[in-house]
């Protein structure tokens, strides 16, 4: 227990310190904090000082100047004759940042988010070890590397709800995968309720987690699950009614100046679903906004996913469904894969589940373990390099990050497809990457099959020993049956 506690602390410290390296980095050349980020901070400031969501006075007084030197795009419309303005972003993140913002401004807000990211890393490690029986040292290494690499470390200091949402998801997975008690039902209700209040785009993941919990435990825990179901329905009703009352619509987008023709324009005025389907690959491979060019270790994600499906690892459905639903939202629901933010934003919420899946793969395959570690360190290097460039005005985190001089990114991005200009070259490169990923996945499955069939059933002798089961590092008493070689 002491050893595991030290690993948790080490993962916390690593995540926090790497995140802090970019605390002073510029988002654009005219602002340290830009795009949607100032809206969250102004709302947090309004909650801290005025105890409301109206940011009209903060906009009029230009309270954003300490972190956004240029005139701010207000993003909102007048909601009444008094000129009330409410930012078109859900309020839970500003509520979390209200006290830090009120006391220490934007720097304190970023430090708070870095601490939340570090807690998320700790929670991911705990779930990996306690719920999926991954060895402590390996899980600590994999989790620490991925949380120190983009996009996890990127959103540890950028003012978006992605990291608090990832924390809510990994807590939910930890509760669902373990034994049920009254306190855990309450905890799950709170974590799932928090997700839509961070952003309405997390509703599909919320529904998926709730359904897993209900289907897995309905026969054994009907009374507790009936209470859970009732609480979630009340929570959903409260969400809709409060939004209708405050924002004038079913979602926060009703107050946005970009959606004056209807709040559901946030999905696109004429969404081209078939065209969006290519994001399934683009979210991984795109030369600017894909996961792999920045952190090559994410190449292991699909083989890890397929390995989970094949091996039917206990509780793997929790990870699989989270990854599928989150990836589906980023593919078909999100307005764009590209935007004025760091790459991978739409996926951060489900990446803790993906990281656990890759840790499971790393424990079963030495080749993948070393690939994940090497590719993860390449990602850490990318972020530290970019953080230095953005802190010294050579590059920014939003405008021209892809023009970085980091050699590993330059080498990989040269052979990855550009999904913004999906020409013939991009099609061929995308096909090549898909083939390579398919081959890697097939070889992973075939190798595991070979290992499983090459180990004969060994005879056993009657005895009584204490043995260590590899992968859990826990001592288990075996009742007079221990396998040994002839």
Short description:
58% of the residues lie in helices and 3% in strands.
What does this protein structure show overall?
It is a single chain. This protein has 486 residues and is an all-alpha fold. The protein has one domain. 58% of the residues lie in helices and 3% in strands. It has helices at residues 2-20, 37-50, 56-60, 92-130, 136-147, 162-176, 182-198, 203-217, 222-246, 273-276, 279-285, 291-294, 301-311, 316-333, 351-364, 366-391, 407-413, 424-454; strands at residues 460-461, 465-469, 474-478, 482-483. The strands form two sheets. A two-stranded antiparallel sheet has the order 1-4. Strands 2-3 form a two-stranded antiparallel ribbon. Helix 4 (92-130) packs across helix 6 (162-176) and helix 5 (136-147) packs parallel to helix 16. The longest helix has 39 residues, at 92-130. The radius of gyration is 24 Å and the shape is globular. The chain starts with a helix and ends with a strand. The model is unreliable at 452-486 (pLDDT under 50).
Series of secondary-structure elements, N-terminal to C-terminal = HHHHHHHHHHHHHHHHHHEEEE
Helix content: 55-70%
Average pLDDT: 88
Our count of domains comes out at 1
Cα-based radius of gyration, to the nearest Å: 24 Å
Q: Give the number of DSSP strands.
A: 4
Name the structural class.
mainly alpha
Distance N terminus to C terminus? 36 Å
Strand order of the largest sheet: 1-4
Low-confidence stretches: 452-486
Tell me the number of helical segments per DSSP (H or I, 4 or more residues long).
18
Estimate what percentage of residues fall within beta strands: under 5%
The dominant shape is globular
**Major sheet size, sense and barrel closure:** 2 strands, antiparallel
